[in-house]
Design goal:
The protein is α+β, with helices and mostly antiparallel strands. The protein has helices spanning 34-41, 78-95; strands at residues 45-51, 54-61, 66-71, 99-100. The chain has a domain at 30-98. The chain is built from two helices and four strands, in the order αβββαβ. The protein has a four-stranded mixed beta sheet with strand order 1-2-3-4. The termini are far apart.
């Protein structure tokens, strides 16, 4: 049986390699999103992308429960979405209730994560 080579990894999955060019909007430091950073450091996760059938979702989960589910707004820059997600995590942590833009109050269909 032939051995397969493992792909070399330049950085952690989903991470920014050091020396990466600055993203549009100029934000480059994790201090710009302290609540996102604290969530990840504490074992939580953040997902930005498609959560079928929702295109452009931003979801924050602390390992036990979902804290925030945001919908990308038309024309919104990624840095602005991350700003809103950081604020939503802070709100969820301080109030104990999830910030949810995905599941509408009168919706028959729910896309809870």
């Amino acid at each position: 049986m032939e051995r397969r080579r493992k792909a070399a990894r330049g950085s952690a999955p989903g991470g920014l390699a050091s020396g990466s060019p600055a993203p549009p909007g100029g934000k480059t430091d994790s201090a710009d999103w302290p609540h996102i950073q604290a969530l990840i450091n504490g074992g939580g996760q953040v997902m930005i992308g498609t959560v079928a059938p929702i295109r452009g979702a931003a979801v924050a989960h602390d390992g036990a429960k979902t804290l925030a589910m945001l919908r990308h707004q038309s024309g919104e820059a990624l840095a602005a979405l991350l700003d809103r997600l950081d604020a939503a995590i802070a709100t969820a942590k301080s109030t104990g209730s999830r910030v949810d833009e995905i599941n509408g109050p009168s919706s028959d269909r729910r896309y809870e994560i």
